[in-house]
Write a structure and sequence with these properties.
Elements: H1 5-10, E1 15-17, E2 38-40, H2 47-55
């Protein structure tokens, strides 16, 4: 989250986070609230449909 998702959002990109069972303590950060360009997904298989929904807008 900390070094991948948050910087991408700050740069104006879209970002999705897929949690993993083990996360380095340095990477821990809260997910952004009320950020329309962010999604918390459960599995990598959810990424293509998430992208398709964004492209349809």
């Amino acid at each position: 989250m900390k070094s991948d998702v948050l910087p991408a959002l700050q740069a104006g990109a879209w970002a999705a986070h897929i949690p993993y069972a083990v996360t380095w303590a340095h990477e821990l950060a809260d997910a952004p609230d009320n950020e329309p360009r962010f999604a918390a997904l459960e599995a990598i298989a959810e990424v293509p449909p998430w992208i398709d929904l964004r492209m349809a807008r």
